Amino acid sequence: MTSPLGKTPVLPSRRLSVAPMMDWTDRHCRQFHRHITRHTWLYTEMVTTGALLHGDVARHLDFAEIEHPIALQLGGSEPADLSKSAKLGEQWGYDEINLNCGCPSERVQRGAFGACLMAEPTLVADCVKAMRDAVSIDVTVKHRIGINDTNSYAFMRDFVGEIADAGCSTFIVHARNAILKGLSPKENREIPPLNYEYAYQLKRDFPALEIIVNGGIKTCAEIDLHLQHLDGVMLGREAYHNPYVMAEFDARYYQDAMPIKSRFEVLQAMLPYVQDQLDLYAQRGLKLNSITRHMLGLMTGLAGARSFRQMLSDSKQLASGRAELLLEAMAKVRE
């Protein structure tokens, strides 16, 4: 467990962050990303209030000190439950609590949270106020620009305005509509068109708020363009599938003079962690693939990247449970 006493004393800005992504941004993924970028904010997968209040808290909240700055994303719509869950997050040492108002999956809708909450701004405001009353760390909201056929700027503006009145000062705008029926979560990340202008206008209308944009952003050139209008940029799938895109973030966006790690140095830095995890959780049946699956995109763009991916995806090789497999895969790229 990470103690609040061990938190990063001075947190970097949210200029850059990696989006919360279900089944992807677990603690193994975040450990890997942290060896590429020291200052970019990392977010957990969404954790529901039910899972925290009635499940294994340690399994959901445990993380390593290296992961700071780190935000806990919560899914829920009951102010009292969110208040208790936010308090747990603060006790475990998280730097921010984020409320999910953007996930469009039917499972999330059945729980009456996620993107469908955009239709209930007063309830979201109550949830935010309850969490802010319970914790001293930042409470933020991640949302879409609209839901279903409701895609007017005024709808999003009024949603943000009411939540801001409840004390939230940071909004992460996934710049697509959420289609709650008929599209899968994957299709919801691709089919509704992007509209970054809504996020830009939001910043113009609420200059005192911190506005961060998310959705379809892949390159530093695109990041630079958005930062001319907004306070921050959140990367999603690109950070996962092509993680080395983040290698220059510290120097470019945080003025960090530390040398940029090569891809091979990143891989070598992960070796002790991989071995420790395999040893620590051997009795629980932790598989090597649980860690290596997050690393498959590290060599993207290099000769031998395909062989690297194949070796780290080979079930027979992975069954050996040898951390050294990472070095053997790396040799394929060097060749």
From TrEMBL:
Gene3D superfamilies: 1.20.120.1460, Aldolase class I. InterPro entries: Aldolase_TIM (IPR013785), DUS-like_FMN-bd (IPR035587), DUS_fam (IPR001269), DusA (IPR004653), tRNA_hU_synthase_CS (IPR018517). Residues 18-326 form the DUS-like FMN-binding domain. Its cofactor is FMN. GO terms for molecular function: flavin adenine dinucleotide binding; FMN binding; tRNA binding; tRNA-dihydrouridine20 synthase activity; tRNA-dihydrouridine20a synthase activity. FMN binds at residues 20-22, 73, 142, 174, 214-216, 236-237. The active site is at residue 103. Pfam families: Dus. Keywords: Flavoprotein, FMN, NADP, Nucleotide-binding, Oxidoreductase, RNA-binding, tRNA processing, tRNA-binding. It is an enzyme of class 1 (oxidoreductase). The record marks 100, 186, 189, 306, 309 as: Interacts with tRNA. It catalyses: 5,6-dihydrouridine(20) in tRNA + NAD(+) = uridine(20) in tRNA + NADH + H(+); 5,6-dihydrouridine(20) in tRNA + NADP(+) = uridine(20) in tRNA + NADPH + H(+); 5,6-dihydrouridine(20a) in tRNA + NADP(+) = uridine(20a) in tRNA + NADPH + H(+); 5,6-dihydrouridine(20a) in tRNA + NAD(+) = uridine(20a) in tRNA + NADH + H(+). Its EC number is 1.3.1.91. Belongs to the Dus family. DusA subfamily. Belongs to the dus family. Catalyzes the synthesis of 5,6-dihydrouridine (D), a modified base found in the D-loop of most tRNAs, via the reduction of the C5-C6 double bond in target uridines. Specifically modifies U20 and U20a in tRNAs. PANTHER family: FMN-LINKED OXIDOREDUCTASES SUPERFAMILY PROTEIN. This is tRNA-dihydrouridine(20/20a) synthase. It comes from Solimicrobium silvestre.
